[in-house]
Amino acid sequence: MKDIEPKPLFIERMQELLKEDFQNYMKILEKAPVKSIRCNTLKISPNSLKERLEKKGWRIKQPFKNYPEIMIIENEILPGELGRSLEHLLGYYYVQEIASMLPVIALKPEPSQAILDLCASPGSKTTQIASEMKNCGTLIANEINLGRIKILASNTERCGVTNCIITKKEGSSFCRRVGERGFEFDKILVDAPCSGEGTLRSTALNYKIWNLNLIKRFSGIQKYLLFSAVGILKSGGEIVYSTCTHAPEENEEVIDFVLNRFGDRLKIEKINLPVKSRPGITVWNGKKYNKEVAKCCRIYPQDNNTEGFFIAKLKKIK
After folding, report:
1. Given 39, 244, 296, 297, which residue is catalytic?
2. Which of 253, 269, 254, 252 is nearest to 316 (CA)?
């Protein structure tokens, strides 16, 4: 960010969202994100991985008692070593930002279930879901871009994922085709493509490409994706919608949209996360959203020293 100035409209919008906390937000953006990894429990236990990495001289912190697979490397290591170490090549861990792990924690995959990761590449959440499923059940990882599918396939193979089928289809088209065949999922993750406002600490280029038209375009795509996904969710099933952006048009507005379309067939579930989160907003730019969107979770960088994320969990009633 040091060489790229945020656009005035971006600053104006974030000031409106954060009010008196805006300066704390801007300060954290100047700092590099922490080095975090997720232990791949399909191949190794968190304790064993920690021992191996500490023998290499890495100082490992496990910040959450209930999630020992989440690890932070606190000391300086050689540039690029995270992705080149033997443990990484063997699939013992996945280099993953902590906020990026939260949607799967909210989803709570179980071994016996049929689960869909609708926008799957590069595979961080797909491999996390497979790990929680203990390679049992059925996991569909869908991705539209062939180049990204190659990355997805490489990561699932490296991590020893065996319960996963990779499909290539535009998300809403995939849902329609599956629905025509009468197949439904127990749980679905829609980690939607977005404007990436939450990743500015690691991807300062997003400052350059940021604009309101991009946000509006993504909002339309996200609404259609989530609406389509709810259609192939079992009665009693749960769906997690997440983005790595702060824009209400891509977050609460999307949830408000599907709540209005599905009425009493859909409700927002409360989410318990191991980090500080803030409630969803119910009013933005004169628009009033369903008051239930307050149950959504906004994760800001300054609250947890992470990237930014938005997470909502929905349950299909009937």
Report:
1. 244
2. 269
Q: Tell me the mean pLDDT in the region 239-265.
A: 97
Nearest CA to 128 out of 151, 98, 99, 94 is that of 94
Distance in angstroms (rounded) separating the CA atoms of residues 21 and 39: 33
State the average pLDDT over residues 32-39: 96
Reference 113, options 234, 265, 226; nearest CA is 234
**Residue 27, CA distances (Å) to 32, 115, 199, 305 in order:** 11, 39, 14, 11
pTM (global) more than 0.85: yes
Is 30 within 8 Å of 46 (Cβ atoms)?
A: no
| Domains in the chain: ranges and CATH | 8-31+99-316 (3.40.50.150), 34-96 (3.30.70.1170)
Contact 168, 120 (CB under 8 A): no
Average pLDDT over residues 42-65: 98
Given a contact cutoff of 8 angstroms between Cβ atoms, the answer to whether 130 and 263 are in contact is no
Can 244 be counted among the known catalytic residues?
yes
Q: How far apart are CA 207 and CA 219, in angstroms?
A: 18
1 has a pLDDT exceeding 70: no
User: Does 122 sit behind a cis peptide bond, omega within 30 degrees of 0 on the bond before it?
Assistant: yes
Start-to-end CA span in the chain (Å): 47
pLDDT of residue 286: 93
Confidence check: pLDDT of 2 > 70: no
**Long-range pairs for 146-153 at CB < 8 Å and ≥24 separation?**
148/121, 148/122, 149/121, 151/121, 151/122, 151/123, 152/120, 152/121, 152/122, 152/123, 152/126
Tokens of 229: 């996904």
Burial of 80 (0-12, 13-18, 19+ CB in 10 A): exposed
* CB 63, CB 273: distance < 8 Å: no
Residue 204: pLDDT band (50, 70, 90) is confident
Q: Are strands 185-191 and 114-117 parallel, antiparallel or unpaired?
A: parallel
